[in-house]
Amino acid sequence: MKPFITGHEELIHDIKYDFYGKTVATASSDQHIKVFDLDPATSSWILNDLWKAHDSLVVKLSWAHPEFSSSRILASCSFDRTVKIWQEQTEEMPGSGRRWARLATLNDSRGPIYDVTFAPNHLGLKFGCVGSDGVFRIYESLEPNDLTVWSLTVEIPILNHQLPAKSLQSSFRVEWCPSKFTTTEKFVVVALDQGFIYRNVTKLEENDKDTGCDKKYVKVCALPEHNGLIRSVSWAPSMGRSYHLIATGCKDGFVRIFKATETAHAEGMGNGGEIKLETLAKLGDHKKEVWRVNWNMTGTILSSAGDDGKLRLWKCNYLSDWKCMSVINTSNQSDSRGMEGDADKPLN
User: Fold this and answer.
1) How many CB atoms lie under 10 A from the CB of residue 87?
2) Where do the WD repeat units fall (predicted)?
């Protein structure tokens, strides 16, 4: 592990790898976005370009799947109440300040925007965003040949009132269900100390007056037991499981792992369904605020980072207990721990 010097003049709020893991983008309070490409010969990060992206601090970034364009697409959100869509101009010189062109500026929010996330590619080119006005919005690109046009297709009120925009202490997050084999489109929206799972309304439910559904999405359940702001949420890839795993990192110092099982909505209406939620683990090893959780590509190992300055890796053992398998700290040392019952076996 070695330091990554970005050169930002102020605090970095977000860093995101692209689909291939060979490009990384950073967002900062200095109102700039920087993009770096990996040099395979030296394993170092080379500046692709930097530019002033917003009129206030840049909070979050999200890469679109590469299947939608011949050049890379990046979304950013800011305290200036806008989401902006950027596209790489490969004909421009790196570091020229013109390498990334703004495709669109979306300013429907009435307050700072705290998170923006592109949906999985099987759902089409769309993204969700949420901010202090307490409204979750989904934008879609309905013209594949014109990425400057984005339509606001969904608005879901999450809070009953708008929050004052004072600092980043307000927690709002968006996480899409990555599984393409699930019965309906789903996502999690986190608002302060609450997390809600939504799913889209099926065709069978559109004419069901008992549901009271006049929207495209309905709330199916809430993530329980949090005693502070939810700083991060991550939905694990399914990899053939009959259920979903959702992890959260909370200000109360705990990493929580939930098992979400889909159930039939009603007899003859299997396309809809509800979600039964079960708490599998409540992990307090950080003992301080947890800022980020993230699953690996197979949904078998969870990483978490907290105010204790350590990155922890979690894995489920044969007894179905979640254990800390490794601790990585800022002194470049790794404290590997054997799993219960598997102390003599290597963890790969």
Assistant:
1) 19
2) 5-39, 51-96, 283-315
Taking only the tens place, the pLDDT of each residue in 241-283 is: 889 999 999 999 999 999 999 876 544 344 456 888 999 999 9
On whether the CB atoms of residues 191 and 222 are closer than 8 A, the answer is: no
Task: Render pLDDT for 158-168 as a digit per residue (tens, 0 to 9).
Answer: 887 666 655 45
Nearest Cα neighbor of 287 from 306, 311, 314 is: 306
10 Å Cβ neighbour count for 17?
A: 12
Closest Cα to residue 76, out of 93, 48, 100? Answer: 100
Higher pLDDT, 295 or 270: 295
- Residues whose CB falls within 8 Å of the CB of residue 343, separated by 6 or more in sequence, listed in order: none
User: The whole model's pTM is what?
Assistant: 0.86
Q: Which residues of 237-252 are buried (b: 16+ CB within 10 A; e: fewer)?
A: bbeeeeebbbbbbbbb
Burial class (CB in 10 A: 0-12, 13-18, 19+), 344: exposed
Q: Cα 74 from chain centroid?
A: 14
Rounded to 5 degrees, what are φ and ψ at 227? -115, 35
Q: Do you know the residue count of the chain?
A: 348
Q: Tell me: the pLDDT tens digits for 60-110?
A: 999 999 999 889 999 999 999 999 999 999 999 988 889 999 999 999 998
Residue 160 CB contacts under 8 Å (≥ 6 apart), including other chains: 134
